[in-house]
Amino acid sequence: MRPRGGSLFPEQISTSASRLDITTIETGGLVRFVLAGELDATEDPRLREAVALAVARGRPIGIDAAGLTFLDSGGIRALLACRRLVENAGLPFSIVEAGTVAYQVLQITGLLRTFDVPAHRGPSS
């Protein structure tokens, strides 16, 4: 199911060869990147490019990681790079939703505060 609000950047909808779907929606000035699938080093460039486009437009960024089924060190590196890019532009960055996979990985790595992750509410549906 596609989030309401449509795609802000239609060129960023994933291809069938990708293991990560990135949907961008804008609500109240925030660009929300809804991630579904696997975030690793292979998908890093796509996420960085999508975030860079939003930063160029001067928009705060929120990452919805509730749909991630896999997150490894390459994916964490991608999230940290995106955070650095956004914050260097003077814009806010946070993970606005984290499913079980993302929450557990960020908790184990001690990055919940770094990404301002909200309290986990149980398994994603």
TrEMBL record:
Q: Name one Pfam family in it.
A: STAS_2
STAS domain mapped to chain residues? 20-125
Matching entries from InterPro entries are given as: MlaB-like_STAS, STAS_dom, STAS_dom_sf
Domain of life, per UniProt, equals Bacteria
Protein name, UniProt field: STAS domain-containing protein
